[in-house]
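User: I'm curious whether this sequence folds into something compact or stays loose and floppy. Could you predict its structure so I can see for myself?
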Amino acid sequence: MKKNILELLDLTFFGIKKEFAQYENEIKLKALILEQKNNCLEDLVSVSKRQSDKLKCTVILKEKLMAILSHDIRTPLNSFKLLIGNYEKGYITAKDLIEGIVETKKDLINLDKMVLDLLHWSKGDAEKCKEKIIAHEPYDEIIQSILSIYSLCAKNKKLEIISAIDIPDGTMLAISKRELEIVLRNLLSNAIKFSHPEGEIIVRLNMSETEKRVAILKVKDFGVGMSPEKTQHLSSNKLTSSCGTLDEVGVGIGLSIVFDVINSNCFAYNIKSILNEGTEFSIRIPVKNC
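Assistant: Here's the prediction. I'll summarize afterward.
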């Protein structure tokens, strides 16, 4: 009888122990699921915070851009409006009107460039997702067409632009025509902006002497140059408003787009600048075939 009771107690304790072990496993499983859900929630909160911070930065940047651009766009338009108004009122002659229009044209060229930059910049990642079209291009013609666009701006500051293009026939660079135009247009515009009157600018596109299957695009000026701190800040790809040697205005969108092209293509680049001596911006562009 006593033995039966002990056996019964053993079975009871065994059952309780087994049931307790099952509960324990269930609790551990639920705790694990809860921990996973908590981690997912923390990840969502983190992503949400990053998106919120990015949105705030975008809003602040947009407000800054609109404030500066509204001024930059109004300036040439108001000058043109004033010029026409003065002619209609008889304050200036037809000769003065023509001279004023020629002078205003350089501002309109800058305004046109700014609009093109904004259109490219606003497309952002959507444009980067498109398939890049790379083909044999007449690189000398592309560069000369860009130089002709800015000939008036260079002439206004009595600048000499020296170009040297030495790319073998049949060479195909790993950059689309549109990207090359965007990069050169903005680097040249920047060089003109910070060059002293009666200076010179050198534009080169040639094969690298030290690296195989690499072409180098260089734009060099002998203008105001930059300090090491400013050069480093420039490489951080942050928009910075600054005036040129003749008080030309800008918000740095152009260089920001240049860095977008460089980064999206994983190009290597180098900026050499000495304060009061000038700046040289070079980009290494891989060659697809020779």
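Summary: Helices lie at 2-88, 94-128, 139-149, 151-156, 177-193, 228-235, 253-265. Residues 126-289 form a domain with the Heat Shock Protein 90 fold (CATH 3.30.565.10).
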